[in-house]
Amino acid sequence: MPAPGENLRIDPARLWDSLMEMAKIGPGVAGGNNRQTLTDADSEGRHLFKRWCEAAGMTMGVDTMGNMFATRAGEDPDALPVYMGSHLDTQPTGGKYDGVLGVLGALEAVRTMNDLGIKTKHPIVVVNWTNEEGTRFAPAMLASGVFAGKHTQDFAYDREDHDGKKFGDELKRIGWVGEETVGDRKMHALFELHIEQGPILEAEGKDIGVVTHGQGLRWVECTVTGKESHTGSTPMPMRRNAGRGLALITELVHEIAMKNQPNAVGAIGHIDVYPNSRNIIPGRVVFTVDMRTHILPKLNAMVAEFMERAPKLCEGIGVGFDAKIVGQFDPPAFNEGCVNAVRSAAERLGYSHMDIVSGAGHDACWINDVAPTAMIMCPCVDGLSHNEAEEISPEWAAAGTDVLLHAVLETAEVVG
């Protein structure tokens, strides 16, 4: 089939209006969004998305994990659908575009097809995956992980937030438990548009990132155990300071990541200090080490070195150390045919582009195991994301959505 013509473009103003309208739901305190998964705000956003999809002539299906699937019929009833989408949930202090651009860009692509009367052999489905962020209910990409067989639904339903509320109960409370069995849907392909969440595209002056790989990830939850005692009256040589263990391990993580350059990162993010009092030496610190690279042997070697050296550092200062892996996925290599469809779309449309590795995890990383998958990235200002100051330009949003539209139409096969 011939590729779509280069004059085929989405409506940039309509896309931007949709992004701004969704951003009114679950507003943050500093211009972004707090629309965490399975909250009332999440439900409100879902209802708006459903209304928009139905107005565009699509039929909505929902599975038992709350994943939403809006279908535009194809000409061949036996052809597997081409999927596109991302997620509508946000961080507690999240931006207006992380995930949301991928969902509403996909909706805009369908609206453009409708405007121009374009028909495709394969049905097209716009998806909103539940709980991609994983902030309220860990781990991240939870519902797409169940869809891809990485987790069981029972495991997902039993996840608890900080208040002890369970995922399954909250999904039922907001009214988004669907009837479809998770993972029963089969896909011809899936495309996910997303902001980069890093500084590379903007720094290189590129409109489009053609994502060839995702980073593998290991989250190692560590507990350093010392002894609580008074900061003023405990002699320095007699202290068993768990905070000092944290400090040494922070430097260790940085050292290991730097040793494995390029394309490797590591840091400590979440930290809980006990008893967290000004005048008490910490007796226990619990924290999570996040290590990532798209090269699996390198990732495994980084974690192995950490697991070998961290206990020795702690032993040397008289504190205990324990660690367990609480989140992991191996680096995905996205489907060559889908990646080529993205690259050729960018070239056909005249957008500058470069190959890029996704520094963050995305639902597409899980779906890549069960269907041909690719990702499209657009720049974000200063690479800032998971922050209310996250920003993109309307032009960047339009370029990414144009490429999404063309890649999906090429894959879904335009008829007539």
In short:
With 416 residues, the chain is an alpha/beta fold. The chain contains twelve helices and 16 strands.
Outline the structure in words.
This protein has 416 residues and is α/β, with parallel strands linked by helices. It has twelve helices and 16 strands. Strands 1-2-5-3-6-15-7-14 form an eight-stranded mixed sheet. Strands 10-12-8-13 form a four-stranded antiparallel sheet, with helices on one face. A two-stranded antiparallel sheet has the order 4-16. α3 (100-116) packs across α12 (394-412) and α10 crosses α12 (394-412). The longest helix is centred in the C-terminal third of the chain and has 21 residues, at 296-316. The N and C termini lie close together (10 Å).
Fill in the keyword field for this structure.
416 residues, 12 helices, alpha/beta, eight-stranded mixed beta sheet, four-stranded antiparallel beta sheet, elongated, single chain, 16 strands
Radius of gyration: 23 Å
Helix/strand-derived category reads: alpha/beta
What is the number of helices? Answer: 12
Report the average pLDDT across residues. Answer: 96
Strand count, sense and barrel status of the largest sheet are: 8 strands, mixed
Report the end-to-end length measured between terminal Cα atoms: 10 Å
Silhouette: elongated
Number of strands: 16
Written as H for each helix and E for each strand, in order along the chain, the element string is HHEEEHEEHHHEHEEEHEEEHEHEHEHE
Give the strand order of the largest sheet, numbering strands 1, 2, ... along the chain: 1-2-5-3-6-15-7-14
The parts where pLDDT drops under 50 for at least 5 residues are none
Fraction of residues in helices? 25-40%
Strand content: 15-25%
